[in-house]
Amino acid sequence: MAGFILDTILMFGTQLLFFGCGWMFFMRRLFIHYEIRNIFVQVLFSVTFALSCTMFELIIFEIIDFMESSSRYFHWQLNLYVMLVILILVIPLYISFQITNSLKFIRKRASQVASI
């Protein structure tokens, strides 16, 4: 049990490090000419970047047999499911929300329906 807790602390720490690196990369390289200042996009990019790097890290840990096998498997499953939720649900829903929010016809229709 102590090994699992230490492995979880290690994984959480590296995810925070990867999140910070993704945030810095987005702000300094990708965000220079990006005119829409939306914090959700920055966080979503950084989380996806951190999860991708963590999955790569887990592959390397599997090759060199660094953490406990059950701990690696648990963190692999957790990262995989969180990544799938982000890629299949969160990003498409956010894109559709932004598209419908930007269309004036839908906004007018929604305000008419809401006023009834």
How would you explain this protein's 3D organization?
- Helix 1 packs across helix 2, helix 1 packs parallel to helix 3 and helix 2 packs antiparallel against helix 3.
- The protein is elongated.
- With 116 residues, the chain is mainly α.
- Helices cover 87% and strands 0% of the residues.
- It has 4 helices and no strands.
Q: How is the secondary structure organized here?
A:
Blueprint: H1 2-30, H2 39-64, H3 69-102, H4 104-115
Helix pairs in contact: 1-2, 1-3, 2-3
Features of this protein?
116 residues; mainly alpha; 4 helices; 87% helix
Count of alpha/pi helices: 4
Output the helix-strand order: HHHH
The computed structural class is mainly alpha
How far the N terminus sits from the C terminus, by CA atoms, comes to: 58 Å
Helix coverage percent: over 70%
Q: Could you give the count of β-strands?
A: 0
Approximate strand percentage = under 5%
Residue windows where pLDDT falls under 50 for at least 5 positions: none
Shape: elongated
User: Quaternary state, please?
Assistant: single chain
Radius of gyration: 19 Å
Rounded average pLDDT = 88
Largest sheet, strands/sense/barrel: none
